[in-house]
Design a protein that fits this description.
It comes from Pseudodesulfovibrio cashew. With 141 residues, the chain is mostly helical. The chain contains four helices and no strands.
């Protein structure tokens, strides 16, 4: 199979958009952790602690997603350089590595999304407990 320099170049916009999405997730989780930390310091509740633990796991996953995204971008750049120099076999291997790193990054992203639903379950459980203990608004009777 013969690939040209433009083939890896097609991957650049996709990798860039994924990296932007991963960075936005990281920043929003960071803000959420800061808010929960302040809440936890005022009144240490178990549900808040569980949410913070969940967010810690997700932050580590996002860091790995970003790392594999960067590796994908670098492999793509080196593949383009090799193909430009007409070193076809190393260029093809580097392009394949770039695709593999991107797939790993997206796989971790999928797992992180699944874990984020657990954080929502924690909130829903807390809300249900409040409703079961009290009235409609969750207040004690």
């Amino acid at each position: 199979m013969q690939i040209s320099v433009t083939t890896p170049a097609l991957l650049f916009p996709a990798i860039s958009l994924f990296m932007l999405a991963f960075t936005n997730r990281f920043l929003s989780l960071g803000a959420r952790i800061r808010n929960l930390h302040a809440t936890y310091r005022q009144s240490p509740e178990e549900s808040v602690r569980k949410q913070i633990e969940n967010l810690r796991i997700r932050i580590h996953m996002i860091r790995r997603m970003q790392g594999f995204g960067v590796m994908s971008m670098l492999s793509c750049i080196f593949a383009m350089i090799c193909l430009f120099q007409e070193w076809n076999l190393p260029g093809q291997f580097l392009f394949g590595a770039s695709l593999l790193f991107l797939v790993i990054s997206l796989g971790i992203s999928f797992m992180e999304i699944r874990i984020s639903s657990q954080a929502l379950d924690i909130l829903l459980e807390d809300m249900e407990r409040g409703t079961a203990e009290g009235g409609k608004d969750g207040t004690q009777r």
